[in-house]
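Many introductory courses stop at the sequence. We go one step further.
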Amino acid sequence: MEEILADAEIGMDEAIDNLKTAFASVRTGRANAMVLDKIRVDYYGVPTPINQMAAVKVPEAHMLTVEPWDKSMLRAVEAAIMASDLGITPSNDGHVIRLPFPVLTEERRKELAKTCHTYAEECRIAIRNVRREANAKIDKGKKASEIPEDDARRGEEQVQKLTDSYVKKVDELLKAKEAEVMSI
């Protein structure tokens, strides 16, 4: 029983970690190097994340700079950023790519808040899937007479409490991210 609960907690922790990563990639008007994490550049035939082939710096609150270690990849990095859904036009001076983050409009803030809600719902679904798997293991143990019926019921209650606590964490993370996105 303890093993089932531990596995469920690990699965739910992974869902929360994935949500935090997804939230970090949502740009909020402030420069954040993590917005580039999903962008891949064709680096000699291998799709490579920008942060693995360039120095990404935040010199000021509304500016990111990308300085590829291999200067011949400057155009490829710029093209990958242009092709992404960031909505930022990079400027290239031959050595460094500058990404100015404009102040977000109210409409764009609402779109980003909706995106955050989508990420949070995906995380809730992942948590509920972990709950379903844990309950299935408990049922399987009960049917195989490995887990007494009372213990199985207690185990299901513990899994539900665990699920509720993780869904609450998701709601708290969403509320914090939404406040960050909507603040000017």
